[in-house]
Amino acid sequence: MARPGDSNQEARIEGYLDRARLTYGTLEDPDFSFTARAFNEQPYRDLVAKLAEIVKVEDMTDLNDNTCFDYGLIQRRAEWKLKLSMVGPYAMLTRVTRGWPRRFRILSVEVVEEPTAGTEQAIVELVREAGFTMISAADAEYSVRFAADPGAEPVDGPLYRVLFSTIPEEVEDLSWRYRY
Fold it and tell me: What are 137-170's pLDDT values in tens digits?
């Protein structure tokens, strides 16, 4: 949720929602047919090819609940998840920890200085050069009204559901909330 007086965040959110309305038609009764078209067209294949030059790329996209291309990125002992929205030019990058339970740290806004920082910075630069806006955790968690299933009533939920996945929040892995 926006901090009181955070007009920059409110303006960003409205921009995301404007784009989402263009893609879905409406947020109250959205048309999800764009996901099959996007999947067939593979509009981000050039970016994925560039990423594959620096990390192993695994496509984990599931059209049953994703409104994004979902990639696992692996380099030796480091692992990340990259989501590229089908709604618009929006991306989210998270670092995945080893072991159990697996934890994720969102890296979309700032890359922290750690041994993998060089690779993370290269990933972020490639994604940004491809024209994507990196979504922050605060923006992804911002509450908006959206009907995440055809014919369902709109409910309040995170912007993340509009841009990346239609899975209800209670079962969605918004795991960057679990800081490590």
Answer: 889 889 999 988 778 889 888 898 899 987 654 3
**Torsion over CA of 171, 172, 176 and 178, rounded to 10 degrees?**
0
Residue pointed to by tokens 């099959």: 36
Amino acid at site 10: E
Question: Which tokens is 98 given?
Answer: 């080893």
Half-sphere exposure (Cβ direction) of 170: Cα atoms closer than 13 Å: 2
Dump the DSSP string for 85-154: ESSSSEEEEEEE-SSSS--EEE-SS----STTHHHHHHHHHHHHHTTPEEPPHHHHT-EEEE--STTPPP
Instruction: Give which of 86, 79, 77 is closest to 107, Cα–Cα.
Output: 79
Owner of token pair 């968690």? 141
pTM: 0.84
- Give buried/exposed letters for 19-30 (b at 16+ CB in 10 A, else e): bbeebbeebeeb
What values do phi and psi take at 70, rounded to 5? -120, 115
Give the chain's residues under pLDDT 50: 1-4, 100-102, 110-113, 115, 169-172, 176, 178-180
Q: State the DSSP H helix or E strand holding residue 104, giving kind and residue range, or none if neither.
A: strand 104-106
